Amino acid sequence: MAITEKLAEKGMxxxxxxxxxxxxxxxxxxxxxVPVSASLGVYDITNPGELGRPKGFAxxxxxxxxxxxxxxxxxxxxxxxxxxxxxxxxPLKFATAQEDxxxxxxxxxxxxxxxxxxxxxxxxxxxxxGTMENLEGVPEARxxxxxxxxxxAGAIAGGVGTTGAILRNMQTPIPDAQGVKRKPTKPPxxxxxxxxAGAGGAALGALAGKFANTMLAAEGNPELPSTYQYDVAKxxxxxxxxxxATPEGELVMAAIRGYGPYKELEQVGLNTPEKLEQRRQELxxxxxNY
Length: 290
Prior knowledge:
Helix content: 40-55%
Mean pLDDT: 81
Number of helices: 11
Radius of gyration: 24 Å
Distance between the termini: 33 Å
Number of strands: 5
Order of helices and strands: HHHHHEEEHHHEEHHH
């Protein structure tokens, strides 16, 4: 993320300029790039079998119409989408997401979907917004669509803080007899040392953020379904069947994914993205698995 790079440059201070361009790139990659990208939730390094697909999210290039969208149909574009463009993908339907995240509740899922698609944030444009519970039950902020959790924030703080401390404490050029400060031919601390220290700081910061996530998730994870689920379900219109065979949920999901329009849905008032998402959440609360 460009925002992360700008924060890193500010935090590391002016002495980073003592290094060559390849050395600066290596320091930034070790102290910020790799640990932060691994902590954002855009990909899961523990899931290589599914090309790093994050828990609860579908593959972008899953086969059209497939029931299980955890498998991709196009490996190359999927890798580019995730690791180059930094795209997380869309959430799976509730039943499948719960297989990835066993403690996922319908209330949390519904709240997260509302946050993801309907919440416009404090600026009113969805550029910056946050929730105290993502699909895994931990806090998450989104900046221009990119997720940033406590683990990523910890990695940024640890990596930039450690690297910046080393660079700021390096001996700066001393004025010569004429009072002119001359740039040294090489920096006082090797780039490799700075990079390794930054990576270590980022790892510690990420662990601290992950621990905080675990504590928050433990506090907010009820062992039993909340009465909210049952109270709301009693007020929801049961799922309809169109043309005598097609479940309403299938048409709603197809419309959300960009297929359609479907006159059957329009006839019952489901004619906007907001109404479709609201109805999908209602169907999910009725345990239709959509």
